[in-house]
Amino acid sequence: MQISRTTPCNKIEIWQPRYKDRKVLIAKFKVGVHNQIVFTKAKHLMDNDWYLSGETIRNSALETNGKIPCYAVDVDLLEPLERV
Q: What CA–CA distance (Å, rounded) separates 24 from 35?
């Protein structure tokens, strides 16, 4: 996904995806209109920044991580983020 450098993008840091079902848990309160996803512990995903729109995230199932409500987004929906 190409986004202008001037477009505000909500940065969400995630340790790693949930590998058993290929989902990314994103806290409900962190979701914005444009979201930049950064993985901090998954070495094969750390090289890129990823993009998810707020609408795509909100269309995913709502689950819990044990403490707070989170959206469970499929890893295949992540798009590489490119700032132009």
A: 13
